[in-house]
Write a structure and sequence with these properties.
Radius of gyration: 18 Å
Helix content: 55-70%
CATH class: Mainly Alpha
Mean pLDDT: 87
Number of helices: 9
Low-confidence stretches: 228-236
CATH superfamily: Ferritin, core subunit, four-helix bundle
Order of helices and strands: HHHHHHHHH
Structural class: mainly alpha
Number of domains: 1
Distance between the termini: 22 Å
CATH architecture: Up-down Bundle
Length: 239
Amino acid sequence: MNDRTLESASPDEETLGLLRLILEGQAYRQLMLCNIRGHGVRFLPGIEEKLLLVDALDTSLRQFRELRRLYEQRGFGDVISAVRGKMERIPYPASRMELAVCLFVCERVQHLALETYVDCADRDFAAIARTRLEANRLLETPEDPAFLDFCADATHRPQAKQFLNRWLGVALLALGRPGSERDLRAVELGLRARSMGDVAEDFRAGLQPFVERCGLTMPEPEAIGVPPFDADERPGAEA
């Protein structure tokens, strides 16, 4: 467990600045999933499928409310206002097949990011991360058999690859600036356990078996537009 907590001393300006960016990054990823779930209900044909998605949306929204409260308590203002401009740049799935890939990819990047905060020096945020992880285990989006069947037809794979590449790009950009000075400094200050660079590597490695089962190939980050984004332009830029 991390024995450095923000409650044990007055955090300096650097620590508070990094914490603000981290909370905004988490809010961005979580609100993105909330919006996508709400949008995606229309694509699910069965009532039970819709109910499962709505249950996941309800849980995520309630926990987002806790994150918003924490952001306000730390004196940072309204987190929705802070990330609203970035949210407008997120695409939305246009079909059931794209929704399946989107949720599968974005849930996993969210889970891996949350794991780095369970011992965060901000105890309240650490508690939110642990609660959200437990919910993720219950609500985790499995591989959609319908999408695997879709990919079994080689004529569908070019479109499936477009879906995969689009949402891999969104997910990787949502991690902010892996390997940056701020990323490494956040680890040094006990705000997270690992760098986002390590998270990005684990994310890609963990998706590889799914990608192979679909008969697809994992694109290099450069091929899906990740590196060209400047720090201030990344849609979810985080410390």
